[in-house]
Protein: Triosephosphate isomerase
Organism: Parapedobacter indicus
Amino acid sequence: MRNKIVAGNWKMNLDHQQGVSLFSEIVNMVKDEVIGHQQVVICSPFIHLHSIAQLAKGTPGVAVGAQNIYFEEAGAYTGEISAAQVKSTGATHVILGHSERRAYFGEDDYVLSKKVDAALKHGLIPIFCIGETREERESGRYFEVINEQLKKGIFHLSNEAFENVVLAYEPVWAIGTGLTASPEQAQEVHAFIRNTLAEQYNQDLADGTTILYGGSCNPKNAPDLFSQPDIDGGLIGGASLKSRDFVDIVKVFN
Ligand code: PEP
């Protein structure tokens, strides 16, 4: 059975105190809700990681992740943070390939492939994001785009390494826009991703890979999205900043 994950992406929001308060609230509300193969992962700004990882200790199924790392080990890279540094906070995951990093910070597939390697080397689970822009969807090229992102960003991994990866399909046109992919549109792409994994690796690996949906996911649309056979949870942006909404999304699996 595949792991079901609801991950929150807080983006560049919340000061330290606000982050600790929100995380405490979420932990209190979900501690009896996270069951079986389910996991909740909060991906916060770096400043919160150590404090919230401490708070997560002792709550099974609740984990903490970063939203970026740099691929070098250490050294003169002013302003950057390495995988080992993130790991030392107690975080276990890192979002890589988010469309905001690709668009605003120029992260290309090559840089992302190096970040994936650095994360795995230091025992962080990459939540690797892929997805097409509105133009790419409208032109019908979305399978091609997603295939390229997988091929160049992550298909250099061995079978063994890939088992520690989580994927997130995030259509760029649905992120922060209030537009959500319909359950059918999302399922179509998730099934395509799983078939592509089976072709590149094997059916067992494809069947075991957790693939999240992200893009204006909320408590109303999550039940239909998460009931699709190839959707294993969500990467939640805006709604992860409201404890009630986020926890209602977590509870969809109960
Ligand atoms: C995201 O940024 O990963 C995301 C899915 O954002 P939102 O839920 O706000 O669309």
Observations:
- The domain at 4-253 is CATH 3.20.20.70 (TIM Barrel).
- The first helix runs from residue 16 to 30.
- Residues 9, 170, 175-176, 214-217, 235-238 surround phosphoenolpyruvate (CB under 6 Å).
- The mean pLDDT is 96.
